[in-house]
Amino acid sequence: MQPLTGKQVLITGGTGSLGQVIVRRILSGEMGTPSKIVVFSRDEAKQHYMRLSYLNRKAATDEIIYRNFRELLTFRIGDMRDYPSVAQAVQEADVVFHAAALKQVPTCEYFPFQAVQTNVIGAQNLVRAVRDNQAHVETVVGISTDKACKPINVMGMTKAVMERIMVEANMDCPRTRFVCVRYGNVIASRGSVVPLFLDQIAHGGPVTVTLKEMTRFLLSLDRAVDTVFAAIRSAQRGETYIPKVPAARLTDLAEVLIAGRDIPITFTGIRPGEKIHEIMVSEEECHRTIERDGYYVICPMLPELCAAPVTTPALTSEYSSADITLDHDGLRELLAPYLGAALPNEIYA
Predict the structure, then answer these.
(1) What is the DSSP letter of 338?
(2) Closest C-alpha among 313, 276, 269 to residue 291
(3) Beta strand 265-267 with 207-209: parallel, antiparallel or unpaired?
(4) pTM for the whole thing?
(5) Which tens digit of pLDDT belongs to each residue from 161-200?
(6) Could you tell me if 120 and 165 are in contact, meaning their C-beta atoms sit under 8 angstroms apart?
(7) pLDDT-derived band of residue 342, with 50, 70 and 90 as boundaries?
(8) Which of the listed CATH numbers 3.40.50.1000, 3.40.50.10190, 3.30.420.380, 3.40.50.720 matches domain 8-335?
């Protein structure tokens, strides 16, 4: 039986770019047919437009196998910072995808406590709602970021704490499996550099790159959701799933998107809280990292949650975007859906 068959699914931050693709993929039936999907977010406008989008899909289009959406897909206004609304949303859930977050790096630098309230206190509210109400939640997947690894910015710092809250929750909630996923720059998500570059190119440039040396991991929204679903299928309590994805220089990315047109690239300098290279698995985490089903898996730091010691680690050094794996040809293949076209219609956030 597929892992979501007959389950009530809650997606926090479900109106965001990742949340919307999680919804689409669940509705495709690949993880089974749930009994209910609840999109939980604080943005009534995004919920409204997302609801309208599904109202207009009366047939199985865009991979959606979905006739009774009025009964299956529901929307709930709420805020991760508000414990009562989180507790109410969690009450009937079997599986929770925790995607709600403040994730724009400069914004979090200028409003650090706002990031703490959403990314840290919000995560603790979710754990508290499961623990204190004896909710029958079977699995919670916390969505994290490469910026949580050796963090130097507020967004990464708060996401790193979110990861630790999720891992430690396994100690307090023995009936619930808490796991995490961590990945890099999602190509078409809000705040991604690709839509920014495309917009700059459409207006004749210049394309702005912070530093010539800057590198990033790159993956599609669907590859991000693949990682989330892999964790649902196979992760053990307290583990963090890491996708094996390519890395590239942002200057190469800009050149591929410009595609020979007479559009300049200018260097603007590093932004507040920005890293030159991102790290997905740190040197300190290497010794407790294994491979499973094509993913790196970081075993929990807490010894009470480790089934067995890692005798043969999958990595001997940190997993960094500084190790370039994409040249111009590889980038063209990866970016083919976005070259010479607008971003996909389902990306609202």
Answers:
(1) T
(2) 313
(3) parallel
(4) 0.90
(5) 999 999 999 999 999 999 999 998 888 666 678 888 989 9
(6) yes
(7) very low
(8) 3.40.50.720
**pLDDT exceeds 90 at position 201:** yes
Coil vs helix vs strand at 250: helix
Does 35 have pLDDT greater than 60? yes
Residue with tokens 């300098």: 269
Please pick, among 147, 150, 159, 244, the residue that the annotation labels catalytic. 147
Average pLDDT over residues 277-302: 96
β-pair type (139-145, 177-183)? parallel
DSSP three-state, residue 66: coil
In the numeric block, the tokens 């929204």 are attached to 221
- How open is the CA angle 175-180-185, to the nearest 5 degrees? 160
159 is catalytic: no
d(CA 31, CA 223): 15
> What residues does each domain of the chain span?
8-335
**DSSP structural state of residue 328:** H
3-state secondary structure 277-324: CCEEECCCCHHHEEEECCEEEECCCCHHHCCCCCCCCCCCCCEECCCC
> Percentages helix, strand, coil for the chain, rounded to the nearest 5?
40, 20, 45
What is the phi/psi pair of residue 298, to 5°? -85, 120
Exposure string over 35-61, b if 16+ CB within 10 A, otherwise e = ebbbbbbbbeebbeebbeebeeeeeee
